[in-house]
Design brief:
The complex is a heterodimer of chains A (566) and B (215).
Chain A (H helix, E strand, L loop, with lengths): L14 H21 L4 H12 L6 E9 L2 E4 L9 H9 L5 E2 L7 E9 L2 E10 L5 H70 L3 H13 L3 E5 L4 E5 L12 H13 L4 E3 L2 E8 L2 E9 L7 H41 L3 H10 L8 E8 L6 H13 L4 E6 L2 E7 L4 H12 L4 E9 L5 H17 L5 E4 L14 H23 L3 H10 L4 H8 L3 H15 L6 H16 L3
Parallel strand pairs in A: 14-15
Antiparallel strand pairs in A: 1-2, 1-5, 3-4, 4-5, 6-7, 6-10, 8-9, 9-10, 11-13, 11-14, 12-13
Helix pairs in contact in A: 1-4, 2-4, 4-5, 4-7, 5-7, 9-10, 12-16, 13-14, 13-15, 13-16, 14-15
Chain B lengths: L13 E3 L2 E3 L4 E6 L1 H18 L3 E5 L5 H11 L2 H4 L4 E4 L5 E2 L3 E2 L1 H15 L8 E6 L9 H19 L3 E8 L5 H10 L2 E4 L2 E4 L19
Parallel strand pairs in B: 3-9, 3-10, 4-5, 4-8, 8-9
Antiparallel strand pairs in B: 1-2, 6-7, 10-11
Classes of the chains: A alpha+beta (566), B alpha/beta (215).
Pfam family, one (chain B): MEDS
Protein name (chain B): MEDS domain-containing protein
InterPro entries (chain B): MEDS_domain
Chain lengths: 566, 215
């Protein structure tokens, strides 16, 4: 058959001959169409629809032989019936006769691919077809089988290509995931390296802030657990840095602690630096545009871990230093050689050279725990007092460099603790470490005297004790009080009963060396008033002020009375 | 009339897929899908327009304007000589818009040819007929009418210096139409080549309609 144009000589044929050849040619074209069909169903549909055009036969059904048996194809061919399906199955893969209602002749044509039967084409006719008509049906079946074979091969090829494509897609997806993972790991490595370097290079908290800023490009703020700024990196640092209210800030920390990841709060993304469940501080990215992505959050998360380690390390150092200071203070109090004391004090940053004063601090209702000792230390530092601080038997003890401001220290501690009910005793000056035990005993003495006085809250220095310094402690107090009572008892009772100031007047009179004018001026009273009061004193006490011994005892008694808070 | 005789050497006046066509050729072009249709039809008509042939596009009234634009990009002559391309819709075939009337269609086409070829002026014509409109009408009786029409169309095409291409979409038509149509066309375009059909039922030797069995 030619595939180019040209004239064709035609010889006269009979009508049958022409029709037969035309059918054969049409089958040839149909075969080409079927060979190009997209799938097996299209091949069989074309075969079914061709049956009626090739002679008097009718297409009843078509089947594909698949792994699980015969499958009607196309499934919606109108004349296929379960009865027909069963007959074709009974033929067991061979061609053969079938019965079709109202049709004299029915036949299942086996569609063969080499030795295998790959399908069936079932046809029928009102009467037995002629040999020529049956011949056309067999050619149609052969061409259909060939086209089916091709369609199956193409399907197999398509499936294979699809699997290959799927594999290729899977591989591409895996590669993409790997690339992403590598990129993420690379970023995580750089985060790890930069923050580790910041810690290793002793850059401390500021180093962590700088590294995080460099990694993310966002300004970074690191605060302690109270909201005080410890480090800032990047532009836009607020000045002054705002300190949050304590209660809302504590709530915020607890809220963030409940989450396992950093939390966005207003314009910041905040992560906690926690060590063994305790919040040591916070680190935050300043991100008002909410542009920070996964990588920035990861860096922040990692920075919070580095910060926790750094803060825990710093606290351990502080605790070690505090312990060293306590041990040093203990040794100083109990007595140690000067050379060792100077060296150890210098090691913890305190200069023991020059005058030192020992200070003992106790507060009513407050145990001498770390919080209390730290409050005392902050108060002293706030007054620019340089000291060694320790805790000892229910009190805070300071070794102060230089003369202490005892009253100011009392007020500062009172403010820090929120209560004025405390006592401070200050020992005498010591110029060498070996004098410290003595100064400590003096501080204790001053503290004790203050606490036993009528106004036990406040500060007392050993120097203020005056005569009282030479009196013993313990049972000596009773004797002292008896002495005061013995000499000043009537005057004290009189003052209490009449709201007068006879004891104060007598005390001032002695302090002024018996000078009337000076005494009256000090008491801001008239000279005649003073004379009257002295007369009353003589009457009430029964003691004349002219007697030397009586005068001495009264003077001592008023001094003691004053020390005791008179 | 410009009847051709078998003894007259005839030069090619058109090409389809590189294969030369001579006046009177009647081709059954079997394609799959609209894209393939356009790839087949566009160069065929564009070449004709460029050669100054009269081109008649039948059966694509709805998208005729779009197709004219496509053609314009292939053959600038469309813009300059707009009446060289004539587009007529499915109503050319249908009476009352629903019933196929082969005799009426052929009469109209013959009248069109008489009008296009008033004298032997050397002009050629090309006809491309997209037969997609026929898909909803496929019934045994319609197939018989259509095949008879196609056979007589062969005779009409041979009567003038013109070539005709009837285009059937294999995604729309099944073998119940394709097989009889193949028998009615002297040439078939399929899968990129033209095949001579030495066994087509020549209308000049017609003794009756081709067999179209029960469906």
């Amino acid at each position: 058959m030619a595939t180019t144009s040209g004239t064709t000589g035609r010889s006269p044929r009979t009508s049958w001959g022409r029709e037969h050849l035309a059918n054969m040619y049409s089958l040839f074209v149909l075969s080409m169409i079927m060979n190009d069909a997209p799938d097996e169903s299209d091949v069989l549909t074309r075969a079914l629809t061709a049956v009626g055009t090739l002679g008097p036969c009718r297409a009843e059904a078509a089947y594909l032989t698949l792994d699980n048996g015969l499958t009607r194809t196309p499934t919606d061919w109108p004349r296929a019936t379960p009865h027909l399906d069963a007959q074709v199955r009974r033929l067991d893969g061979q061609g053969g006769p079938v019965t079709v209602p109202d049709r004299e002749w029915g036949w299942s044509l086996a569609l063969r691919s080499t030795a295998d039967v790959i399908g069936h084409l079932v046809v029928s006719a009102r009467s037995q077809p002629t040999d020529d008509e049956y011949f056309l049906l067999r050619v149609l079946a052969q061409q259909t089988a060939a086209a089916l074979t091709q369609a199956m091969a193409r399907r197999t090829e398509r499936d294979r290509e699809q699997r290959l494509r799927q594999l290729s897609d899977d591989r591409a997806a895996t590669n993409a995931r790997l690339t992403t993972s590598v990129s993420e790991l690379e970023h995580q490595r750089s985060v790890h390296e930069m923050l580790s370097d910041a810690s290793a290079n002793d850059d401390g908290v500021q180093g962590i802030a700088g590294a995080l800023h460099q990694l993310t490009g966002y300004p970074v703020a690191i605060e302690d657990r109270f909201g005080n700024l410890r480090a800032w990196a990047g532009p836009g640092r607020p000045d002054p840095y705002p300190k949050p209210e304590a209660a809302p800030h504590e709530e915020l920390l607890q809220d963030v602690a409940r989450r396992l990841r950093p939390v966005r709060v207003a314009e910041q993304v905040i992560a906690l630096a926690q060590h063994r469940g305790e919040v040591l501080g916070t680190v935050a990215l300043i991100d008002p545009e909410a542009g920070a992505g996964e990588e920035e959050w990861f860096a922040l998360d990692y920075a919070s871990t580095a910060l926790a380690l750094e803060l825990a390390h710093l606290r351990n150092l502080a605790e070690v230093e505090l312990r060293l200071r306590r041990e040093l203070v203990d040794d100083l109090i109990t007595g140690t050689d000067d050379a060792s004391a100077y060296a150890r004090a210098a090691a913890v940053g305190h200069d023991l050279h020059g005058p030192q004063y020992l200070v003992a601090v106790q507060w009513t209702g407050r145990p001498a725990d770390d919080t209390f000792v730290q409050a005392v230390g902050r108060s002293a530092a706030g007054l620019r007092m340089r000291s060694l601080l320790a805790r000892r038997s229910g009190m805070a003890v300071l070794v102060l460099q230089g003369r202490p401001q005892a009253k100011a220290l009392y007020e500062a501690v009172g403010r820090e603790l929120g209560s004025p009910t405390g006592s401070i005793g200050v020992g005498g000056r010591c110029d060498t470490p070996s004098e410290i035990p003595r100064s400590f005993q003096e501080a204790l003495r001053a503290l004790e005297v203050r606490q036993r006085s009528q106004s036990p809250h406040g500060a007392t220095t050993f120097d203020e004790l005056g005569l009282y310094r030479i009196l013993g402690s313990g049972g000596g107090y009773r004797e002292v009080e008896q002495f005061v009572r013995e000499w000043l008892g009537p005057l004290l009772d009189y003052d209490a009963a009449h709201h007068s100031d006879l004891v104060q007047t007598l005390s001032q009179y002695f302090e002024c060396g018996g000078n009337y004018d000076a005494t009256a001026a000090a008491l801001a009273i008239h000279r005649s008033t003073l004379r009257y009061r002295l007369q009353r004193i003589r009457e009430v006490s029964g003691n004349g002020l002219g007697d030397v011994d009586g005068r001495l005892n009264l003077h001592v008694a008023t001094r003691v009375w004053k020390v005791l808070g008179g | 009339m410009h009847r051709r005789t078998a003894d007259t050497p005839v030069a090619a006046v058109a090409h389809l897929g590189g294969v030369p066509l001579t006046p009177g050729d009647h081709i059954c072009a079997l394609y799959r899908g609209r894209a393939e249709r356009d790839q087949l039809m566009t160069p065929f008509l564009a070449e004709g327009l460029s050669a100054g042939h009269i081109c008649l596009l039948l059966g694509t009234e709805g998208d005729g304007r779009t197709f004219r634009d496509v053609l314009a990009s292939h053959a600038p002559a469309v813009g300059r000589r707009g009446n060289s391309l004539q587009i007529r819709g499915p109503n050319e075939y249908l009476r009352d818009g629903t019933t196929f009337d082969g005799d009426r269609t052929l009469a109209r086409l013959s009248a069109w040819s008489d009008e296009m070829f008033p004298s032997d002026n050397g002009t050629c014509a090309r006809l491309a007929a997209d037969m997609s409109w026929a898909q909803p009408l496929v019934q045994p009786a319609f197939v018989q009418d259509l095949v008879r029409y196609e056979m007589r169309a062969t005779r009409w095409l041979r009567s003038y210096p013109q070539v005709g291409m009837c285009m059937y979409d294999l995604e729309m038509f099944h073998s119940d139409l394709i097989v009889p149509l193949v028998k009615a066309h002297p040439k078939v375009w399929l899968n990129g080549m033209i095949m001579e059909n030495p066994y087509f039922l020549d209308p000049d030797e017609e003794t009756g309609p081709p067999a179209s069995g029960e469906t």
